[in-house]
Specification:
ABC_ATPase_HisP-typ; 2 domains; membrane; six-stranded mixed β-sheet; binds magnesium ion; ATP hydrolysis activity; four-stranded antiparallel β-sheet; about 25% strand; 9 helices; Rossmann fold; alpha/beta; binds adenosine-5'-diphosphate; single chain
Amino acid sequence: MSATTLAHTAPVSTDAATRGLVEIRGVSKSYSGHEVLHDVNLTVQPGEVVAILGPSGSGKSTLLRTINHLESVDRGWVTVDGQLIGYEQRGDKLFELKEKDILKRRTQVGVVFQNFNLFPHLTAAENIAKAPVALKRVSKSDGHELALGLLAKVGLSDKADAYPRQLSGGQQQRVAIARALALTPKVLLFDEPTSALDPELVGEVLDVIRDLAKLGTTLIIVTHEIGFAREVADRIVFIDGGHVLEVGTPAQVFGSPTHARTKEFLGKVL
Ligand code: ADP
Ligand code: MG
């Protein structure tokens, strides 16, 4: 695959002293002429927990997917720890990387989806060890040890040999979190991690995310669990119609939202 030239230019800051861990700058994205992200800017600091809230169809998933280049962007750029994701800079232009290099850089960013997406034919431990063994030249036995350690971290030490179908939704999602951690990403993205779960299983997954937050893991979480967002997030981002309308501490956004759309949304969900 040859590199694709993109329409946008890229004044990428490389000043390590001032940049955030994740920098999203001027990101716009359209699907067949319909703009779903409009000039999105967001900086996430190391160790920060950012919750993204917004109505259905507002662009939350698309934004998250641009952070690890599961979606390309039409304008703007994303860096993680100063490194462009999905693109390389030549002069003042960005070129899309080759698939192999996209994958390499994507290992900096872990993702947990709504529907777990575990490999059904692999055990919990094999699901977790797969990427480190395939991408980081970790030996199979080291990969297994790594998996056991991560399973302990999510409270599933006894499930190493279980297949996904033998696990509850909450357990599967905890395995998915352990799998996302296996490549020691610099930031972990969650896209509605509890939306597919029966209500009684939501708590165990939120507990794991809460523990990660306490350990100082950098997290960006799209969620409809407003109470949880309020409790764990350092900052709340409210997005509507592809526009970031509000960014602030939970106290600011929940206590005194500045935008009418935020008030309306919070009025419905709180
Ligand atoms: P959210 O996660 O906030 O519900 P999404 O990011 O999934 O919103 O979607 C934002 C908008 O982009 C929606 O209008 C959706 O229909 C549209 N969209 C998302 N993905 C695609 C796609 N692959 N092709 C066309 N339209 C899409
Ligand atoms: Mg979504």
